[in-house]
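Fill-in record for Cytosine deaminase.
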Amino acid sequence: MFDLIIRKANLPDGRTGVDIAVKGAKIAAVEPQIDSPARAEIDATGRLVTPPFVDPHFHMDATLSLGLPRMNVSGTLLEGISLWGELRPLLTKEALVERALRYCDLAVSQGLLFIRSHVDTSDPRLVTVEAMIEVREKVKPYIDLQLVAFPQDGYYRAENGVGSLNRALDMGIDIVGGIPHFERTMDDGRASVEALCRIAADRGLPVDMHCDETDDPMSRHIETLAAQTVRFGLQGRVAGSHLTSMHSMDNYYVSKLIPLMAEAKINVIPNPLINIMLQGRHDSYPKRRGLTRVRELMDAGLNVSFGHDCVMDPWYSMGSGDMLEVGHMAIHVAQMAGLEDKKKIFDAITVNSAKTMGLEGYGLEKGCNADFAILQAADPLEALRLKPTRLGVIRRGKVIARSMPCIAELSLDGRPARIDSGRDYVPLS
């Protein structure tokens, strides 16, 4: 007797009509037809069942703060940073927790059950750290939340920046962050990368740095990050987020840089929605896209995963907590519209991101955690196109969110009365 069986599921790897059996909190079997009974069954009716979505780069301490204390009029990165500096003294633990929990509710409804959030440590009060640690504990039954100690105003540039970051780690933050391109000089940025990697090595922690989030092709801190990763033996435990300066670098230098990153086993985290919105703001025409070299990095064997980064905060007034929206944008901006390209994009918001976060038990094989989402789509390509309804979200074998299928009713003479956009609105073979 199983606890739950999902019937007639399509899987991301192309298998169709598969049954998934759950015993307790684990997947007990994945087979074409499971004859054993179960206490509960869900008929996926040929829909896509995928491991949950994973967001390896987010700012939960800022989410849903749009309009506080004012709007970002220019919509630029630098005004967003300035605006966050205005908001920071007004932050309270209670408000931070309330906004973060509301976002986590949204995330669950979207099948997003794993999030890595950067937490600003530049305010010596560390109210953001206290709040996000509380949120991490509150959401533990349904979301795995990793926290990065992030010196938003610069590790060296901010007053008390060094001490505040170390205090945040002492309080229980999981990961060492940084922002070398925001230090006062390139040399300060280089020194911050070395110091932060040393801290991570000494404490046995991973590293995840905002790195070269700029249009300046001479911002090359990712080179230093890769070198220090090898120096301190941190291979596979380090992520470089954004890396937008690579968009503007000359090809010869990149031909040297990417192999260095591969040697260091750097995890790469572009943020397509925010990168396309904030980069290239000083350009007239032609305008740079700003997104890093996704295809080239993937082709070199680096683990590339996509982050949402922001939802309705000082930097980004949009967002929905939907990682398929992130992947949808990546297809367009990276110009990866081929069939195999789209499969890689889907991996970048699921299995690749799980690898970046070091998740154990993630997947749809026997013995994995019974975590998955049922989508109103037939396969990953259709899911990326439609950004469909999440019909069900399961965490450790328990259904924690449900939605009714999105079906339109038509009143057109001689035409169907109902239309399912996933099944009916497709090219005829």
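KEY FINDING: The chain has a mean pLDDT of 97.
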